[in-house]
Amino acid sequence: MFSGYYTSRVHDLWPRDDDALDDLARYALLPHGKLLRPRLLLLCVAALDGDLAQAAAVAAALESHHTASLVHDDLIDGDAERRGRPSVHARYGTGQALLAGDALLCRSFAEVAECHRHGVAPDLLLDVIALAGLTGVEICRGQLLEERLRRDLACGLDAYLAMVTMKTAALLSATCRTAALLSGADEETTTALTVYGETLGIAFQMRDDLLPYRDAETVRGAGKPLSSDLRNGRPTLPLLLAVERALPRQARRLRRLFARAAHSARARGRLTTLLHELGAVEAATAVLESYVEKARAHLDHLPATPHREQLHRLTYAMGTG
Amino acid sequence: MFSGYYTSRVHDLWPRDDDALDDLARYALLPHGKLLRPRLLLLCVAALDGDLAQAAAVAAALESHHTASLVHDDLIDGDAERRGRPSVHARYGTGQALLAGDALLCRSFAEVAECHRHGVAPDLLLDVIALAGLTGVEICRGQLLEERLRRDLACGLDAYLAMVTMKTAALLSATCRTAALLSGADEETTTALTVYGETLGIAFQMRDDLLPYRDAETVRGAGKPLSSDLRNGRPTLPLLLAVERALPRQARRLRRLFARAAHSARARGRLTTLLHELGAVEAATAVLESYVEKARAHLDHLPATPHREQLHRLTYAMGTG
After folding, report:
1. Which of A67, A298, B114, B170 has CB atoms 3.0–4.6 Å from A196's, for a disulfide?
2. What protein family is recorded (chains A, B) (predicted)?
3. Which among B72, B105, B123 has the least Cβ separation from residue A122?
4. Would you list the DSSP string of A99-152?
5. Is A96 left (phi over 0), alpha (psi -120 to 50) or beta?
6. What is the pLDDT of residues B251-266, one digit of tens each?
């Protein structure tokens, strides 16, 4: 149901066929992805008995914000594919992708401000905007840290967690917090949902890290090039756990294969085998599952409703189930 | 006076010495430029007898927004210098410059939202945020049009004006409109200031277009590489007016020199001579002066105060005086 609302909203915001920017924006936004952030926001609002019509416009704005960050992220990482087709910069070039991301970002703030018209209280919207702005800064901070950790297999789990918390979890956390703000939740519930979103976001990134190492069936249709992490020299969770478990000889091999994996499919294959041998994929899966369970537990602060059940299901879907 | 406030505000917002993003943000924001937009906003607020303390924080946020757009613009244009030193991407690389711009943009919206604490009415701030967001979109639209007009000497003055209005004038217009909103001005004054800002912005771009063709003394210290327009194949006002005035043989020579000017300082020199011969520099100066005068006339809607006099001076300073 939200999918239809969202699609027509994108066409309302970027309507012109003969306009280069509207064209770019529609290409970036549609066909849409899983709409995880809007769905999460709406489920939380429903669970808190908030106003769903008011929340829908904010949810759509969050998706613009998120899409802007994906467009720029693909540009930085040189990822040529997104959702099974050319990414914005691969299709339109660097300059246009940069401008598309900027425009989506700016529009998303205007979208939230305009929710005033849908009857959301102005001071509440200002809180949502301040949160979105600061979250955008956190995401950049996380991406910068990611740059710094590039090719660094010795960075350790703490640095990894700090990076993931800012880069990925911050927006999911802000999404859930926004739901609480819009629904007028009390402070305890607001904090619980904020932490829920953050924990879920960490799980989300860990799941993403694990995708290339799970069986082909699960992976097919993910629509992004699975070698992106390795091509970009990202120290993902399975790799970091492998480092912890490796004997000196294995660690040397791991570093060698990791260095070559950026350019060699063969090295990527061997690296995958080594990770399985070291039990790192299994260990990463266990860590992921622990975050999923931690996230779910935070939902106990919500009243027991069918919407909370749906949130449980969404949370478990982050696991490898 | 604003300079000191602004500098300490930047340090408050981006305080950490050991943080990569704070470091990037401070590099982009300080030492600051002419602070035209904040000064314009504050002068307009003063002229309307509004609250200057409240307006100062909004003015600083506008400068963040503007700086973000400069950082990305330099990246797109490959301009390696800004304010007499390496531009952000020249110093830190593409990825970090992209993230710095995104972070400044996001922070600027949060800055405006946080003005709630300084006592600005929430619904007013939402109007300012919506305006800033939509203006950000307009700027991107203008930059896209600029991309499309690249190397197109036959684009005509209408396309040039449309591009300039979005790329440069939109933010100056929004700046003056924001001042009117913050000061609770009536609709007529608000409209007059909006049009004033737009007209001033067009003059500002025309002045920038003319810089490389004015005498070296005036030009020295502008702190940006004066060949940028020609290197990027931009059809600036003097060039477009030269096209209008050229005989067929001169037009061919103009196109040839324009095509070579991107890579050859000698071609740039000859092109400059040709523009002077065609009277295009003089004609562009006359057009610029007419915009300056139009802009100034819109100030008649303001009460006659010393602040209005200062606005007159600021306006005339856009000319070649």
Report:
1. A298
2. Belongs to the FPP/GGPP synthase family.
3. B123
4. HHHHHHHHHHHHHHHHGGGGT--HHHHHHHHHHHHHHHHHHHHHHHHHHHHTT-
5. alpha
6. 999 999 999 998 998 9
Q: What's residue B228's pLDDT?
A: 81
pLDDT confidence of A225, banded at 50, 70, 90? low
pLDDT of B219 over the 50 cut: no
To the nearest whole Å, the CA of B232 is away from the closest chain A CA by 13
What is residue B225's predicted lDDT score, i.e. its pLDDT?
Answer: 54
Mutate to test the interface with B, among A102, A112, A124 (most CBs of B within 10 A): A102
Residues in B touching A69 (Cβ below 8 Å): 102
When scoring A29, A109, A127 by the number of chain B Cβ atoms within 10 A, the one with the most, hence best to mutate, is: A109
8 Å CB contact of A122 and B127 = no
Taking the CA of residue B319 as centre, how many other CA atoms within 13 Å lie in the half-sphere pointing to its CB? 16
Reported ipTM: the value is 0.95
Summarize pLDDT for B144-181 with one digit per residue, the tens.
999 999 999 999 999 999 999 999 999 999 999 999 99
**CATH fold label, B2-316:** Farnesyl Diphosphate Synthase (1.10.600)
pLDDT at A244: 95
Report chain B residues whose CB lies below 8 A from the CB of A94.
76
